[in-house]
Amino acid sequence: MSDPHHVSQLDPPSRCRLRLLGLAAAALLAGGGLALGAAPQPPLFDAHLHYTGVDAAALPPEEIIGILDDSGVTRAVVSGMPTSAVERLHAAAPERIIPFLNVYNAPGAKRDWMHDEDLPARVAELLDAAGGIYRGIGELHIFAEDGQSPVLMALADMAAERGLMLQIHGDAEVIDAVFARRPRLTVLWAHLGTKPRPQAIAPVLARHPNLYADTSVRDGRFVDEQGRLKPEWRAFFTEQADRVLVGVDTFWTRRWKRFDQVSAEIRGWLAQLPHEVADQLAYGNAERLFGGVAQPVSFR
């Protein structure tokens, strides 16, 4: 879950938005399926969405499912506060919505949850009460100075013991600390980490075979002023084709309302990769992690 401060941190800067407009338009024409008789959109499995009480007040579950339908998103990992909103969304489409448990119980908890000694017990109660619908815990915002937090380690233990994943928004040092504690845990690293450069990400992926990274809100970094995929990112995605997932990251309600544009931007740079690579990033890796059947339409 995110707040308005998240926008300045992670949302692509204005110049990236401008150069992505043309890319999005091209993607919509090429694969969007908006024109009469156009080909179906290549599917996306979104690995990073949020659905909050504020979102639910503006967009009830049936509208969210319609947004996913319109954007060709077959399945999605979703977390949010309060957890009841995510649980209602999952109940509306249990085969498509994969819930992750948000551990925050107040807006300010994002900053200091790792110091709350009572949090692991509350998380266990929430997991038990939900009857097994959750597939992971997170998104957890935590950085290097708190990487050895006993609360984080308790959540890592809980995830490992219950067969859940962790979704971490944090530094490489945090990732290393979690895997030192639980080397067989599966971790989803949000936003390609806090240093989203191929040379910074690749060594961390190499150290931890159960680590996967999502591309959410980093799309503007991948392309040049003409919307062309940069060579260093083409090489990274090709080399790490089995470790990267895509995501929109609906960190506030406005993001849901421009979901089609963001998903078109994602398709725009995916379409410039070898189709086998694009298919893995778009849905194949997520289906392998969460279970599912390969989709019939690909980036060809």
Query: What's the average pLDDT?
Result: 89
- Low-pLDDT stretches are 1-38
What's the total helix number?
14
Helix content: 40-55%
Main β-sheet, in a few words? 8 strands, parallel
Q: Estimate the strand proportion.
A: 5-15%
**Looking across the biggest beta sheet, what order are the strands in?**
1-2-3-4-5-6-7-8
| Alpha-carbon distance between the two ends | 34 Å
Helix/strand-derived category reads alpha/beta
Total strand count, please? 8
Radius of gyration, Cα only, in angstroms? 18 Å
Order of helices and strands: HHEHHEHEHHEHEHEHEHEHHH
Shape: globular
Task: Describe it.
The protein is an alpha/beta fold and 300 residues long. The protein is built from 14 helices and eight strands. It has an eight-stranded parallel sheet with strand order 1-2-3-4-5-6-7-8, sandwiched between helices.
Jot down its keywords.
single chain; 300 residues; alpha/beta; eight-stranded parallel β-sheet; disordered N terminus
Task: Describe the SSE topology.
Blueprint (H helix, E strand, L loop, with lengths): L3 H7 L3 H18 L12 E7 L2 H6 L2 H10 L2 E7 L3 H10 L4 E5 L7 H4 L6 H11 L6 E7 L7 H13 L2 E6 L1 H10 L5 E3 L8 H10 L3 E4 L16 H9 L4 E2 L7 H5 L1 H12 L4 H16 L10
Parallel strand pairs: 1-2, 2-3, 3-4, 4-5, 5-6, 6-7, 7-8
Helix pairs in contact: 2-13, 7-8
